[in-house]
């Protein structure tokens, strides 16, 4: 038997239950994986509260790292004993568990230089940072970005990666301590968006021009300020909606604010091609193994404390990445 978090109805963190589950043997194309560490991502809260609808009851979590214990028929990309990591969407749901069956396709073999704990802290957030930095826009040194939630899991990785590309990084944060952390990870400037008007500060910091690209993972509360922070023909990247979804958007607004571009990308579409996933993972692993990008695992929990972990994440208590240690 394995232990797992399951939920029977959508709602607040209290719906999460810690249970014993039978795992069984892998079928064709599947592996049985023993987890060493499991990633806690903001997307997990969207599944839990019903923002991303899924059938009930269900497991939770889309990212973990561990060791392959058994492989089913036709599996060729991993072997028994391999250390692997994975992330995904509905295809990997059920990561909040000590052991599980999973399709082999999302699994990525880990180099010796990357621990399972680091992998669980960065497979989702690091691959997201990789496509945001390497696929969304053809950045040149000297370009400027506005990065919301700069002290968060995705934020700290993007900030470091952006500096490797020679970008000017303006990060938003909600406290002085988070501002310090964001600056220590590459932000040239920080704005406390709980107290300051973001677009006004961005205009002041960029000589009135605005930034080339905004990475907005906050959504509802920051959307309009983000558009107002962009240069003419700048790019607005809606990365996520930590403060709630953006409703009632009229595309005419993009014309009125300077012929802006807008995209709402999802990691799944940037790692669907195995060769592209391998290339992005290779770049990420290389930066992390060499120390150019540091993965900050600032919160560690036991699996049975999943509800508390969700409360901490949603009440903005966390910085960097959070993981469950199995
Ligand atoms: N599109 C994709 O492919 C993709 C992939 C992975 C993640 N994401 C998105 O990226 C974002 C970051 O994910 P993460 O797991 O690294 O989380 P995170 O950034 O570590 O945590 C969320 C942060 O958002 C900020 N925030 C602002 N307003 C908030 C509010 N009303 N409620 C809660 N938090 C608020 C908080 O930072 P402050 O206190 O500093 O404001 C908080 O720490 C999420 O929106 C997630 O959905 C998108």
TrEMBL record:
GO terms for cellular component: cytosol. PROSITE patterns: QOR_ZETA_CRYSTAL. Keywords: NADP, Oxidoreductase. It holds the Pfam family ADH_N. One of its GO terms (molecular function) is NADPH binding. Residues 11-324 form the Enoyl reductase (ER) domain. It comes from the Bacteria. Its EC number is 1.6.5.5. It catalyses: 2 a quinone + NADPH + H(+) = 2 a 1,4-benzosemiquinone + NADP(+). Coiled coil: none annotated. PANTHER family: QUINONE OXIDOREDUCTASE PIG3-RELATED (PTHR48106), QUINONE OXIDOREDUCTASE-RELATED (PTHR48106:SF13). NCBIfam families: PRK10754.1. Belongs to the zinc-containing alcohol dehydrogenase family. Quinone oxidoreductase subfamily. This is NADPH:quinone reductase. It comes from Aeromonas caviae (Aeromonas punctata).
